């Protein structure tokens, strides 16, 4: 990391940026246990309440295309402040709504606002660090970020035991206010005026879209998005696989899901340890290869060693490698020597959310009574990602 950043400041940056980047996913994971209660309270169908989840995911994807370019024009701090103030206000409006249709619309807006944290945490890190130092920082950031999906459903489930589902969104409003206050008091602007994109704000958007002319960048972004596609294949199918197919109890599955979440967090930290010894590009090729082999083993196991222990072991191995790949691909892409890191981060986030969003229902369509569709989906996503990365001749970080 940068020599002029003290250990205390590094720790604070890791904590605050980890929290900022997790607020979007937090708005999804925290309310999952409340979905049945919300269906009853709003006198509607479960499918409509579940549509609010899709609306938030779409908002998170679209919002990155807004906050990323704007940050390249106006700096990082102002869009972050506006995003989290809006996040808090919309969370309060959701808590007050009595209509599932208003819920769906407000969840989309909440995703738009929460997206600022995801896209700008990456941009701020790339403003401050580069090379192996950036990989180390992203390792720590991803490890902190990985904790939230593990604890969020537990916290959400605990809340609805004592209060109505509205309490979850009131908590999100409080978190939004606290994060906005922390940004105001504890985060300095990291993009000097001299490095911002000049002219009309629309110029920032055109600069971002211009990145799509760079073939190497497009391959990197799609390759990273496919890794998220593999992750979402696991997330969307895991409850059906382990609870319906293997007949695990809800509490046992919750424990397993938490263990896998910790595995992702641990995997995210590994590239930082290896950063000064093995190049990020080399690590990506090796880990993509081993992940593909693991996914193939999971696919073959359905025909040969179809049992719970085998599935648990191989899935844990796969998600641990996912954690490594998230850190590595993010670092390589954000290390690209381009001035509009906000736009780079936005397109990276869009690819991840879009491909992940497509793979989730696709795995369900393929079938939920077996883990074969999940295994095949992960194998295909990782296989194509590996092919894309092998097409890049020169080091992406140069």
UniProtKB/TrEMBL annotation:
<keyword id="KW-1003">Cell membrane</keyword>
<feature type="transmembrane region" description="Helical">
    <location>
        <begin position="137"/>
        <end position="160"/>
    </location>
</feature>
<feature type="transmembrane region" description="Helical">
    <location>
        <begin position="311"/>
        <end position="334"/>
    </location>
</feature>
<protein>
    <recommendedName>
        <fullName>Bcr/CflA family efflux transporter</fullName>
    </recommendedName>
</protein>
<keyword id="KW-0472">Membrane</keyword>
<dbReference type="InterPro" id="IPR004812">
    <property type="entry name" value="Efflux_drug-R_Bcr/CmlA"/>
</dbReference>
<feature type="transmembrane region" description="Helical">
    <location>
        <begin position="255"/>
        <end position="274"/>
    </location>
</feature>
<dbReference type="InterPro" id="IPR011701">
    <property type="entry name" value="MFS"/>
</dbReference>
<feature type="transmembrane region" description="Helical">
    <location>
        <begin position="78"/>
        <end position="96"/>
    </location>
</feature>
<keyword id="KW-1133">Transmembrane helix</keyword>
<feature type="transmembrane region" description="Helical">
    <location>
        <begin position="286"/>
        <end position="305"/>
    </location>
</feature>
<feature type="domain" description="Major facilitator superfamily (MFS) profile">
    <location>
        <begin position="13"/>
        <end position="393"/>
    </location>
</feature>
<feature type="transmembrane region" description="Helical">
    <location>
        <begin position="371"/>
        <end position="389"/>
    </location>
</feature>
<feature type="transmembrane region" description="Helical">
    <location>
        <begin position="46"/>
        <end position="66"/>
    </location>
</feature>
<feature type="transmembrane region" description="Helical">
    <location>
        <begin position="217"/>
        <end position="235"/>
    </location>
</feature>
<dbReference type="GO" id="GO:1990961">
    <property type="term" value="P:xenobiotic detoxification by transmembrane export across the plasma membrane"/>
</dbReference>
<feature type="transmembrane region" description="Helical">
    <location>
        <begin position="12"/>
        <end position="34"/>
    </location>
</feature>
<dbReference type="InterPro" id="IPR005829">
    <property type="entry name" value="Sugar_transporter_CS"/>
</dbReference>
<dbReference type="InterPro" id="IPR036259">
    <property type="entry name" value="MFS_trans_sf"/>
</dbReference>
<feature type="transmembrane region" description="Helical">
    <location>
        <begin position="166"/>
        <end position="187"/>
    </location>
</feature>
<comment type="similarity">
    <text>Belongs to the major facilitator superfamily. Bcr/CmlA family.</text>
</comment>
<keyword id="KW-0812">Transmembrane</keyword>
<dbReference type="GO" id="GO:0005886">
    <property type="term" value="C:plasma membrane"/>
</dbReference>
<dbReference type="InterPro" id="IPR020846">
    <property type="entry name" value="MFS_dom"/>
</dbReference>
<keyword id="KW-0813">Transport</keyword>
<dbReference type="Pfam" id="PF07690">
    <property type="entry name" value="MFS_1"/>
</dbReference>
<dbReference type="GO" id="GO:0042910">
    <property type="term" value="F:xenobiotic transmembrane transporter activity"/>
</dbReference>
């Amino acid at each position: 990391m940068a020599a002029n950043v003290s250990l205390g400041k590094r720790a604070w940056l890791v904590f605050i940026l980890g929290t900022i980047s997790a607020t979007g996913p937090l708005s999804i994971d925290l309310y999952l246990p409340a979905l049945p209660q919300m269906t009853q309270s709003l006198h509607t169908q479960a499918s409509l309440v579940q549509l609010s989840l899709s609306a938030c995911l779409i908002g998170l994807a679209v919002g990155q295309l807004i906050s990323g370019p704007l940050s390249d024009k106006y700096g990082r701090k102002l869009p972050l402040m506006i995003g989290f103030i809006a996040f808090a206000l919309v969370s309060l409006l959701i808590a007050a709504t009595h209509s599932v249709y208003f819920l769906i619309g407000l969840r989309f807006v909440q995703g738009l606002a929460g997206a600022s944290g995801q896209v700008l945490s990456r941009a701020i890190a790339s403003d401050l660090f580069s090379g192996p130092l950036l990989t180390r920082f992203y390792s720590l950031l991803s490890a902190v970020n990985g904790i939230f999906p593990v604890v969020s459903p537990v916290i959400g489930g605990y809340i609805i035991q004592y209060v109505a589902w509205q309490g979850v969104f009131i908590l999100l409003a409080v978190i939004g206010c606290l994060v906005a206050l922390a940004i105001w008091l504890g985060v300095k602007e990291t993009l000097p005026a001299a490095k911002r994109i000049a002219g009309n704000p629309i110029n920032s958007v055109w600069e971002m879209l211009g990145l799509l002319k760079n073939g190497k960048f497009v391959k990197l972004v799609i390759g990273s998005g496919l890794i998220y596609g593999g992750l979402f294949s696991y997330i969307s199918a895991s409850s059906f696989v382990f609870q319906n197919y293997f007949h695990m109890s809800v509490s046992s599955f919750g424990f397993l899901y938490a263990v896998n979440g910790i595995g992702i967090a641990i995997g995210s930290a590994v590239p930082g340890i290896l950063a000064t010894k093995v190049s990020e590009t080399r690590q990506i090729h090796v880990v993509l290869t081993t992940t593909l082999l693991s996914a193939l083993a999971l696919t073959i196991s359905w025909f040969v060693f179809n049992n719970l222990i085998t599935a648990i072991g191989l899935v844990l191995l796969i998600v641990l490698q996912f954690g490594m790949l998230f850190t590595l691909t993010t670092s390589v892409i954000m290390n690209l020597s381009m001035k509009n890191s906000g736009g780079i981060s936005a397109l990276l986030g869009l690819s991840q959310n879009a491909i992940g969003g497509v793979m989730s229902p696709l795995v369900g369509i393929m079938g939920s009574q077996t883990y074969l569709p999940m295994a095949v989906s992960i194998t295909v996503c990782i296989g194509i990602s590996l092919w894309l990365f092998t097409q890049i001749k020169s080091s992406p970080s140069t």
